[in-house]
Design a protein that fits this description.
Blueprint lengths: L4 H21 L16 E2 L5 E2 L2 E7 L9 E6 L4 E2 L2 E2 L4 E14 L5 E4 L3 E4 L5 E5 L5 E6 L9 E2 L5 H5 L3
Antiparallel strand pairs: 1-3, 2-5, 3-4, 4-11, 6-12, 7-8, 7-9, 7-10, 7-11
Amino acid sequence: MQPSKGLIRLLLAFLLTLTHIFVSAQVKDAGSPSTSIFPKGQLAPASNFTGKAWVHPLIQADSAFNIPVSSVTFEPGARTYWHSHGGGQGIIAIDGVGYYQEKGKPIQVLRKGDAVKCPPETPHWHGASPETSFVQMAVTPNHANGRVKWLQPVTAAEYTNTK
């Protein structure tokens, strides 16, 4: 059974609100770098990422809940390979500066609080900007067409084409 669009929208709105509350509640010392509200997690596989990224599952999929959620922390310059999702993907920027790009479209710069909806079966990539790390929440529904299909690496020319 696939989740309804309304359920996905409600979950994304809830997660964005929850994230805003947690991020707003963080206490930061003047001049010190911000810290993520989630642990880094496990190092992401080099077979699907350029640079270092870590994935921390927040909500596991099970028979009652079909929409897993993870936080992903990218070091500066790190990014996913091109990929697509059978059920689409929601990305919520938690910290830092990130990039998101769908095939054939310009790169979008993501900052804390930004949210992106990537349509199903749409090749895209996301990651940190060259100078700044990036933390995101990824909401990726399980789907009959698969959760993720990994494609080729993002080239240096694609990554630096922010115009």
